[in-house]
Recover the amino acids of this structure.
Protein backbone atom coordinates (compact mmCIF):
# COMPACT_ATOMS: atom_id res chain seq x y z
CA UNK A 1 0.00 0.00 0.00
CA UNK A 2 2.81 2.40 0.86
CA UNK A 3 4.61 1.91 -2.46
CA UNK A 4 1.35 2.18 -4.41
CA UNK A 5 0.33 5.39 -2.65
CA UNK A 6 3.72 7.01 -3.32
CA UNK A 7 3.69 5.89 -6.97
CA UNK A 8 0.25 7.42 -7.41
CA UNK A 9 1.46 10.67 -5.88
CA UNK A 10 4.36 10.72 -8.36
CA UNK A 11 1.93 10.00 -11.17
CA UNK A 12 -0.11 13.05 -10.20
CA UNK A 13 2.89 15.38 -10.27
CA UNK A 14 4.61 13.89 -13.31
CA UNK A 15 3.34 16.63 -15.63
CA UNK A 16 4.13 19.55 -13.33
CA UNK A 17 2.34 21.18 -10.43
CA UNK A 18 -1.15 19.62 -10.10
CA UNK A 19 -4.20 21.82 -9.66
CA UNK A 20 -7.48 21.53 -7.79
CA UNK A 21 -8.43 18.09 -6.52
CA UNK A 22 -5.27 16.57 -8.02
CA UNK A 23 -3.14 18.85 -5.83
CA UNK A 24 -5.00 17.82 -2.67
CA UNK A 25 -4.71 14.14 -3.61
CA UNK A 26 -0.98 14.47 -4.34
CA UNK A 27 -0.60 15.87 -0.81
CA UNK A 28 -2.88 13.28 0.79
CA UNK A 29 -1.26 10.13 -0.62
CA UNK A 30 2.20 10.59 1.03
CA UNK A 31 0.41 11.37 4.30
CA UNK A 32 -1.54 8.11 4.03
CA UNK A 33 1.72 6.29 3.21
CA UNK A 34 3.36 7.71 6.33
CA UNK A 35 0.34 6.73 8.43
CA UNK A 36 0.44 3.18 7.08
CA UNK A 37 4.15 2.89 7.89
CA UNK A 38 3.56 4.17 11.43
CA UNK A 39 0.54 2.03 12.25
CA UNK A 40 0.68 -0.98 9.90
CA UNK A 41 2.40 -4.33 10.30
CA UNK A 42 5.76 -2.93 9.19
CA UNK A 43 5.87 -0.59 12.18
CA UNK A 44 7.24 -3.37 14.40
CA UNK A 45 10.47 -3.33 12.39
CA UNK A 46 11.00 0.44 12.64
CA UNK A 47 12.83 2.37 15.39
CA UNK A 48 10.52 4.22 17.81
CA UNK A 49 11.88 7.62 16.74
CA UNK A 50 11.06 6.88 13.10
CA UNK A 51 7.57 5.72 14.04
CA UNK A 52 6.98 8.97 15.95
CA UNK A 53 8.04 11.08 12.97
CA UNK A 54 5.87 9.06 10.57
CA UNK A 55 2.91 9.27 12.96
CA UNK A 56 3.19 13.05 13.09
CA UNK A 57 3.42 13.17 9.28
CA UNK A 58 0.24 11.10 9.12
CA UNK A 59 -1.86 13.28 11.44
CA UNK A 60 -3.34 15.51 8.67
CA UNK A 61 -5.00 12.48 7.01
CA UNK A 62 -8.63 13.24 8.02
CA UNK A 63 -8.34 16.95 7.22
CA UNK A 64 -6.82 16.25 3.80
CA UNK A 65 -9.42 13.59 2.97
CA UNK A 66 -12.13 16.14 3.76
CA UNK A 67 -10.53 18.92 1.70
CA UNK A 68 -9.81 16.56 -1.21
CA UNK A 69 -13.45 15.46 -1.24
CA UNK A 70 -14.63 19.06 -1.45
CA UNK A 71 -12.18 19.92 -4.23
CA UNK A 72 -13.26 16.83 -6.16
CA UNK A 73 -16.98 17.56 -5.92
CA UNK A 74 -17.25 21.36 -5.95
CA UNK A 75 -16.32 23.49 -8.96
CA UNK A 76 -13.50 25.92 -8.26
CA UNK A 77 -13.34 24.98 -4.58
CA UNK A 78 -11.16 27.39 -2.62
CA UNK A 79 -11.05 26.83 1.15
CA UNK A 80 -12.53 29.73 3.09
CA UNK A 81 -11.66 30.46 6.75
CA UNK A 82 -14.51 28.20 7.90
CA UNK A 83 -13.08 25.31 5.85
CA UNK A 84 -9.65 25.78 7.42
CA UNK A 85 -11.19 25.84 10.91
CA UNK A 86 -13.08 22.60 10.27
CA UNK A 87 -9.95 21.04 8.75
CA UNK A 88 -7.99 21.99 11.88
CA UNK A 89 -10.68 20.32 13.98
CA UNK A 90 -10.34 17.16 11.92
CA UNK A 91 -6.56 17.38 12.28
CA UNK A 92 -6.91 17.62 16.07
CA UNK A 93 -8.29 14.07 16.39
CA UNK A 94 -5.21 12.27 14.99
CA UNK A 95 -2.95 14.63 16.96
CA UNK A 96 -4.70 13.57 20.17
CA UNK A 97 -4.24 9.91 19.19
CA UNK A 98 -0.54 10.54 18.58
CA UNK A 99 -0.30 12.26 21.98
CA UNK A 100 -1.91 9.24 23.67
CA UNK A 101 -5.09 11.07 24.74
CA UNK A 102 -7.54 8.32 23.91
CA UNK A 103 -9.55 7.98 27.10
CA UNK A 104 -12.74 9.51 28.39
CA UNK A 105 -14.12 12.47 26.46
CA UNK A 106 -11.00 12.72 24.28
CA UNK A 107 -11.33 9.06 23.34
CA UNK A 108 -14.94 9.58 22.31
CA UNK A 109 -13.95 12.66 20.32
CA UNK A 110 -11.16 10.89 18.42
CA UNK A 111 -13.43 7.92 17.73
CA UNK A 112 -16.25 10.04 16.30
CA UNK A 113 -14.15 12.33 14.05
CA UNK A 114 -13.40 9.80 11.26
CA UNK A 115 -17.09 9.00 10.92
CA UNK A 116 -17.91 12.73 10.95
CA UNK A 117 -15.50 13.28 8.05
CA UNK A 118 -16.87 10.36 6.04
CA UNK A 119 -20.49 11.21 6.82
CA UNK A 120 -20.14 14.83 5.78
CA UNK A 121 -18.43 13.89 2.51
CA UNK A 122 -21.28 11.49 1.75
CA UNK A 123 -23.76 14.34 2.31
CA UNK A 124 -21.74 16.70 0.09
CA UNK A 125 -21.54 14.08 -2.67
CA UNK A 126 -25.25 13.25 -2.65
CA UNK A 127 -26.47 16.83 -2.12
CA UNK A 128 -25.01 17.95 -5.44
CA UNK A 129 -26.00 14.87 -7.44
CA UNK A 130 -29.25 16.25 -8.87
CA UNK A 131 -27.70 19.46 -10.26
CA UNK A 132 -24.35 18.04 -11.41
CA UNK A 133 -24.13 17.91 -15.21
CA UNK A 134 -20.56 16.56 -15.53
CA UNK A 135 -20.77 12.81 -16.34
CA UNK A 136 -17.51 11.75 -14.70
CA UNK A 137 -18.20 13.72 -11.56
CA UNK A 138 -21.77 12.42 -11.32
CA UNK A 139 -20.30 8.91 -11.25
CA UNK A 140 -17.83 10.01 -8.57
CA UNK A 141 -20.72 11.33 -6.46
CA UNK A 142 -22.10 7.79 -6.36
CA UNK A 143 -18.81 5.91 -6.14
CA UNK A 144 -17.32 8.07 -3.39
CA UNK A 145 -20.16 7.53 -0.87
CA UNK A 146 -20.08 3.80 -1.57
CA UNK A 147 -16.34 3.65 -0.89
CA UNK A 148 -16.59 5.87 2.21
CA UNK A 149 -19.46 3.84 3.69
CA UNK A 150 -17.55 0.62 3.01
CA UNK A 151 -14.48 2.10 4.70
CA UNK A 152 -16.51 3.09 7.76
CA UNK A 153 -18.05 -0.39 8.03
CA UNK A 154 -14.67 -2.10 7.70
CA UNK A 155 -13.19 0.20 10.32
CA UNK A 156 -16.05 -0.51 12.71
CA UNK A 157 -15.75 -4.28 12.17
CA UNK A 158 -12.00 -4.20 12.70
CA UNK A 159 -12.54 -2.69 16.16
CA UNK A 160 -14.36 -5.90 17.17
CA UNK A 161 -11.15 -7.90 16.72
CA UNK A 162 -8.95 -8.32 19.78
CA UNK A 163 -5.85 -8.82 17.64
CA UNK A 164 -4.40 -5.44 16.43
CA UNK A 165 -2.43 -7.10 13.63
CA UNK A 166 -5.51 -8.82 12.24
CA UNK A 167 -7.42 -5.53 12.52
CA UNK A 168 -4.70 -3.78 10.48
CA UNK A 169 -4.78 -6.50 7.82
CA UNK A 170 -8.58 -6.33 7.66
CA UNK A 171 -8.54 -2.55 7.15
CA UNK A 172 -5.79 -2.78 4.55
CA UNK A 173 -7.28 -5.70 2.64
CA UNK A 174 -10.91 -4.61 2.57
CA UNK A 175 -10.62 -0.82 2.68
CA UNK A 176 -7.30 0.87 1.94
CA UNK A 177 -5.89 -1.40 -0.77
CA UNK A 178 -9.07 -1.70 -2.90
CA UNK A 179 -9.48 2.09 -2.86
CA UNK A 180 -5.90 2.64 -3.98
CA UNK A 181 -6.23 0.01 -6.72
CA UNK A 182 -9.38 1.68 -8.08
CA UNK A 183 -7.57 5.02 -8.01
CA UNK A 184 -4.54 3.50 -9.74
CA UNK A 185 -6.65 1.95 -12.50
CA UNK A 186 -8.25 5.36 -13.11
CA UNK A 187 -5.07 7.43 -13.08
CA UNK A 188 -3.06 4.99 -15.20
CA UNK A 189 -5.48 5.45 -18.09
CA UNK A 190 -6.30 9.13 -17.52
CA UNK A 191 -4.45 12.39 -17.34
CA UNK A 192 -4.21 13.71 -13.76
CA UNK A 193 -6.17 16.74 -14.98
CA UNK A 194 -9.15 14.40 -15.22
CA UNK A 195 -9.58 14.99 -11.50
CA UNK A 196 -10.58 18.57 -12.35
CA UNK A 197 -13.40 17.34 -14.63
CA UNK A 198 -12.57 19.94 -17.34
CA UNK A 199 -15.42 22.10 -18.62
CA UNK A 200 -17.15 21.19 -21.83
CA UNK A 201 -16.49 23.24 -24.95
CA UNK A 202 -19.10 26.02 -25.27
CA UNK A 203 -21.53 25.48 -28.10
CA UNK A 204 -21.15 28.67 -30.16
CA UNK A 205 -20.35 27.20 -32.59
CA UNK A 206 -21.42 23.80 -31.18
CA UNK A 207 -18.80 21.21 -32.13
CA UNK A 208 -19.83 18.85 -29.35
CA UNK A 209 -23.59 19.18 -29.76
CA UNK A 210 -24.96 16.04 -31.37
CA UNK A 211 -26.94 17.09 -34.48
CA UNK A 212 -29.73 14.85 -33.23
CA UNK A 213 -30.04 17.15 -30.20
CA UNK A 214 -30.33 20.36 -32.20
CA UNK A 215 -34.11 20.40 -31.90
CA UNK A 216 -33.94 19.82 -28.14
CA UNK A 217 -31.36 22.61 -27.78
CA UNK A 218 -33.67 24.99 -29.67
CA UNK A 219 -36.66 24.04 -27.53
CA UNK A 220 -34.56 24.48 -24.41
CA UNK A 221 -33.51 27.96 -25.52
CA UNK A 222 -37.14 28.86 -26.18
CA UNK A 223 -38.27 27.53 -22.80
CA UNK A 224 -35.63 29.54 -20.97
CA UNK A 225 -35.76 32.80 -22.94
CA UNK A 226 -39.34 33.10 -24.21
CA UNK A 227 -41.28 31.09 -21.63
CA UNK A 228 -38.82 32.08 -18.86
CA UNK A 229 -39.15 28.80 -17.02
CA UNK A 230 -36.24 29.90 -14.86
CA UNK A 231 -38.70 32.07 -12.92
CA UNK A 232 -40.27 28.92 -11.47
CA UNK A 233 -39.14 28.58 -7.87
CA UNK A 234 -37.33 25.32 -7.26
CA UNK A 235 -37.07 24.39 -10.93
CA UNK A 236 -35.27 21.05 -11.23
CA UNK A 237 -33.74 19.36 -14.24
CA UNK A 238 -36.39 16.62 -14.01
CA UNK A 239 -39.17 19.24 -14.16
CA UNK A 240 -37.55 20.98 -17.11
CA UNK A 241 -37.03 17.66 -18.90
CA UNK A 242 -40.69 16.82 -18.32
CA UNK A 243 -41.74 20.18 -19.76
CA UNK A 244 -39.62 19.53 -22.85
CA UNK A 245 -40.77 15.92 -23.15
CA UNK A 246 -37.28 14.44 -23.03
CA UNK A 247 -35.35 12.16 -20.65
CA UNK A 248 -33.38 14.02 -17.97
CA UNK A 249 -30.09 12.34 -18.97
CA UNK A 250 -30.44 13.63 -22.53
CA UNK A 251 -31.13 17.15 -21.28
CA UNK A 252 -28.07 16.95 -19.02
CA UNK A 253 -25.93 16.06 -22.03
CA UNK A 254 -27.23 19.01 -24.04
CA UNK A 255 -26.69 21.53 -21.23
CA UNK A 256 -23.25 20.15 -20.35
CA UNK A 257 -21.67 19.02 -23.62
CA UNK A 258 -23.60 21.34 -25.90
CA UNK A 259 -23.76 24.51 -23.83
CA UNK A 260 -20.72 24.04 -21.60
CA UNK A 261 -22.49 24.26 -18.24
CA UNK A 262 -21.38 22.04 -15.37
CA UNK A 263 -24.14 22.57 -12.82
CA UNK A 264 -27.88 22.88 -13.44
CA UNK A 265 -28.53 25.28 -10.57
CA UNK A 266 -25.75 27.57 -11.82
CA UNK A 267 -27.21 27.41 -15.34
CA UNK A 268 -30.66 28.47 -14.12
CA UNK A 269 -29.25 31.07 -11.74
CA UNK A 270 -27.46 32.71 -14.65
CA UNK A 271 -30.85 33.70 -16.08
CA UNK A 272 -32.12 34.75 -12.67
CA UNK A 273 -29.14 36.94 -11.84
CA UNK A 274 -29.34 38.58 -15.27
CA UNK A 275 -33.00 39.46 -14.72
CA UNK A 276 -32.25 40.74 -11.22
CA UNK A 277 -29.43 42.93 -12.54
CA UNK A 278 -31.78 44.49 -15.08
CA UNK A 279 -34.41 45.16 -12.42
CA UNK A 280 -31.93 46.60 -9.94
CA UNK A 281 -30.46 48.93 -12.56
CA UNK A 282 -33.87 50.23 -13.68
CA UNK A 283 -34.61 53.68 -12.17
CA UNK A 284 -38.33 53.02 -12.56
CA UNK A 285 -37.95 50.15 -10.10
CA UNK A 286 -35.78 52.01 -7.65
CA UNK A 287 -38.46 51.80 -4.96
CA UNK A 288 -39.01 48.05 -5.33
CA UNK A 289 -37.57 46.05 -2.46
CA UNK A 290 -34.69 43.70 -3.11
CA UNK A 291 -36.79 40.91 -1.61
CA UNK A 292 -39.51 41.50 -4.22
CA UNK A 293 -36.94 41.40 -7.03
CA UNK A 294 -35.42 38.22 -5.59
CA UNK A 295 -38.78 36.42 -5.53
CA UNK A 296 -39.67 37.75 -8.97
CA UNK A 297 -36.40 36.35 -10.30
CA UNK A 298 -37.17 32.86 -9.07
CA UNK A 299 -35.16 32.74 -5.83
CA UNK A 300 -36.73 31.00 -2.85
CA UNK A 301 -35.19 33.25 -0.19
CA UNK A 302 -33.37 36.54 0.20
CA UNK A 303 -30.34 34.79 1.74
CA UNK A 304 -29.96 32.51 -1.29
CA UNK A 305 -30.40 35.46 -3.66
CA UNK A 306 -27.77 37.53 -1.86
CA UNK A 307 -25.26 34.68 -1.90
CA UNK A 308 -25.78 33.73 -5.55
CA UNK A 309 -25.82 37.36 -6.71
CA UNK A 310 -22.62 38.17 -4.83
CA UNK A 311 -20.86 35.08 -6.17
CA UNK A 312 -21.88 35.98 -9.74
CA UNK A 313 -21.18 39.73 -9.69
CA UNK A 314 -18.79 40.31 -6.81
CA UNK A 315 -21.26 42.79 -5.28
CA UNK A 316 -24.24 42.65 -2.98
CA UNK A 317 -27.58 43.47 -4.65
CA UNK A 318 -27.74 46.78 -2.72
CA UNK A 319 -24.24 47.81 -3.79
CA UNK A 320 -24.98 46.81 -7.38
CA UNK A 321 -28.19 48.87 -7.43
CA UNK A 322 -26.48 51.93 -5.90
CA UNK A 323 -23.63 51.79 -8.44
CA UNK A 324 -25.94 51.18 -11.42
CA UNK A 325 -28.34 54.00 -10.53
CA UNK A 326 -25.47 56.38 -9.80
CA UNK A 327 -23.96 55.62 -13.22
CA UNK A 328 -27.28 56.31 -14.92
CA UNK A 329 -27.63 59.64 -13.10
CA UNK A 330 -24.32 60.94 -14.41
Amino acid sequence: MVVLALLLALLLVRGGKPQGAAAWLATLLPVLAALELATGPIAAALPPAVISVLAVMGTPNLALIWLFGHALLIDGFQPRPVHWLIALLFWLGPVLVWAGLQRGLWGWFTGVLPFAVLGHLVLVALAGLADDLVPGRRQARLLLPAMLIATALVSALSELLNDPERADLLRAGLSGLPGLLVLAAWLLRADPLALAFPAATPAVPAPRLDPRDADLAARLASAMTKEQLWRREGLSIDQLAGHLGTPAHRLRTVINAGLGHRNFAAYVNGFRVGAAQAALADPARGRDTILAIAYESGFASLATFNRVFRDATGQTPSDYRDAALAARAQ
Summary: The mean pLDDT is 82.
